[in-house]
Amino acid sequence: MIENLTQRAKEVLNGNFQAEGFTIPSKGLYPFQWKWDSGFIAIGFAHYDMEKAKAEIGTLLKAQWDNGFIPHIVFHTENDSYFPGADFHQSNLHPQSSKKYRSTGMTQPPVTGFVLQEMYRIADDKQDLLRFIEEHIDKVYQNHAYFYTHRDPNNEGLMYIYHNWESGTDNSPVWDAIWETMNPPHYDVKRKDTTHVDVSQRPSNREYDHYLYLIDIAKEHRYDDAKIAELSPFLVQDPLFNAMLIKSNEALIELYGLIGNNTEKIRQLKQWQEKSIRGCNEKLFDEALGAYVHYDLRNDRPIRHVTSSSFSPLFAKIPDQDRAAILVKTMLERFGGDDKYLCASFDPTDERFDPRKYWRGPVWINMNWMLYYGLKNYGFLKIAERMRKDSIELIERDGFYEYFDCRKDNGEPNRRGYGGSNFSWSAALLIDLLK
Ligand code: 9YW
After folding, report:
1. Whose C-alpha lies nearest to ligand 1, atom 9?
2. Per-residue pLDDT for 414 more than 70?
3. Per-residue pLDDT averaged across 44-73, rounded?
4. How many CB atoms within 10 Å of residue 125?
5. pLDDT band at 318 (very low <50, low <70, confident <90, very high)
6. Domain containing residue 294: CATH number
7. 137, 149, 209, 344: which sits with the fewest CB atoms below 10 Å from its CB?
8. Number of domains the chain contains
């Protein structure tokens, strides 16, 4: 049975791999290379086709800008099945953007560092992989240097994101209060996502107005980081984004250690690391909620909602053991009833929870994968195993969907996953979870 499922996962991944050396997240819906998808996909490939895993990361890093920035989407090919495409984003406005690859002018969670470490863990031929890492690691380091130079205006060790798409959790209720502070124009555009996926499972048109308006503001200032920090109505410190950076810092420290002769970079990484871990623990942990929360830097207030991102610091070993136990208690109390699969993307006890709508409730396999390893970090083996089993069961029963209803009984006889089908990271991370 496991062989069968793994085989099907490989078919999904192989089917989505493109001749240009990258993998689309899902046919039709997402026809380009996405930054954090790319990392999760490489982990899946690493288990059976290391050359494709290397190609995935190598291709992404080729699109890096001269200032170290790595964009959230790289438009390798022309394709009009996705909106907003390269013509809307106009990455060439930024003087240091890639001259060769068209992309967006925003980024996504910095997973690439820990992905290299995972590939090394999985590799049979460690020497070969270390050579690959040696060739690419400085680009990842430069990406981290970009963050610490341009995304932390108050020197707190906490990077800001200026767009909800940078978080990876696009339409989370976490952003709702920010949308209320804005009044963007109505964009008369043709969305493509709702031609692939039922409109009830996607963000609303009004939400898209906000998303597009934020990009237009950034474009007006040629994607200049300092201007964005000064003017963007959306400026948030996200626990997930920062946990990914911290996890990747740690990975770079380990990998540079294996390579040798990189004392100065290791020293710098340790300094960043210390500051970021402190920033996360001191600013983003909400004692009353027992969870890490987002901070709205523009309006200077914490965003007090519990999401699956609230638990992601476990993956990067940010909390101490006592605080980790508090997080687990919060997770079990709010997200962990017997009638539910772990782990909803948004607090099931909150009135904004919607089990079918994208990042407003459904289970996402990439989050489950991180939380599984995060729980194991602290010895919460029973709940870690439940996280793993739930992920496998959802995919086995429903297929390789983009996201899943967390309710065991949702009143629908033909229950299924939602969003895109044959979704690459669901397949890739399942392969890892089945090992
Ligand atoms: C979009 C590709 C991306 C993911 C994001 C997810 C979704 C794309 O798909 O965003 O157009 O809204 O939210 O995390 O990287 O899989």
Report:
1. 30
2. no
3. 98
4. 10
5. very high
6. 1.50.10.10
7. 149
8. 1
